[in-house]
């Protein structure tokens, strides 16, 4: 089975711009979660989608949003970028149902740099 | 709110020695406890996990123990090798569709 993929892998933007990141989960997985990873804050949960519905959201401002499509692919969007948004954005997929429903697998991440 | 504390933040061991990393959580409803290994520049990889109905799980040189009463769980790596050098993260899933991660432990295995 192919693993979780994310595009693009690297992105450079300037303050005030917006960005959209994409995540394709493992085939058959219906849950996609997004995380922000920074050296100082570790892995911070952004939100989780299951069957196109957002089920949970972390403590991030409304500039961070996401969605999930019927094929389980997910996108996250950050509007009005700030310098502090520079981070590695990881998505993770899991089956969401069945015996291994909560085993979570990560994509390679998108490294976002805001100048 | 939910919280996960992970200790130590850095750990250096001699090759062949054991390493132990401990995490403490606050949400008593937590029911799933995975450990991830992240090598430099790579994605976190699931290395072992344990569910709340089990006290210990082993997979070759790694093991995880869970103490639900005390709300802590630990990762044990025996016979450490240089390739074990990485950052290790614990996480907790309380069934609320999100995972809370510990702050990570940088393990250095000295040859």
What does this structure look like?
The complex is a heterodimer of chains A (about 120) and B (about 110). Chain A is about 0% helix and about 50% strand. Chain A has strands at about 5, 10-15, 20-25, 30-40, 40-50, 55, 65-70, 75-80, 85-95, 105, 110-115. Helices cover about 0% and strands about 55% of the residues of chain B. Chain B is built from no helices and 11 strands. Chain B has strands spanning about 5, 10-15, 20-25, 30-40, 45-50, 55-60, 60-65, 70-75, 85-95, 100, 105-110. In chain B, the strands form 2 sheets. In chain B, strands 2, 4, 5, 9, 10 and 11 form a 6-stranded mixed beta sheet that branches. A 5-stranded antiparallel beta sheet of chain B has the order 1-3-8-7-6, with no helix packed on it. Chain B is globular, with a radius of gyration of 13 Å. Classes of the chains: A mainly beta (about 120), B mainly beta (about 110).
């Amino acid at each position: 089975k192919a693993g979780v993929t994310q595009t693009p892998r690297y992105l450079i933007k300037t303050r005030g711009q917006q960005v959209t990141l994409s995540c394709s989960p493992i085939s058959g997985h219906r849950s996609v979660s997004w995380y922000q990873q920074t050296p100082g804050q570790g892995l911070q949960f952004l939100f989780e989608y299951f069957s196109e519905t957002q089920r949970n959201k972390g403590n991030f401002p409304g500039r961070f949003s996401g969605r999930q499509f019927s094929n389980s692919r997910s996108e996250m969007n950050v509007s009005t970028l700030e310098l502090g948004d520079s981070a590695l954005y990881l998505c993770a997929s899991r089956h969401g149902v069945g015996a291994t429903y909560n085993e979570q697998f990560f994509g390679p991440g998108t490294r976002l740099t805001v100048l | 709110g939910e919280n996960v504390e992970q200790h130590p933040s850095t750990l250096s061991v001699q090759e062949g020695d054991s390493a132990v990393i401990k995490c403490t959580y606050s949400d008593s409803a937590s029911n799933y406890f995975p450990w991830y290994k992240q090598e430099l520049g790579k994605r976190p990889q699931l290395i072992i996990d344990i569910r709340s109905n089990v006290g210990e799980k082993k997979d070759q040189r790694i093991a995880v123990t869970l103490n639900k009463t005390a709300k802590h769980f630990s990762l044990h790596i025996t016979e450490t090798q240089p390739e074990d050098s990485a950052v290790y993260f614990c996480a907790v899933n309380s069934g609320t569709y999100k995972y809370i991660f510990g702050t990570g432990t940088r393990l250095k295995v000295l040859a």
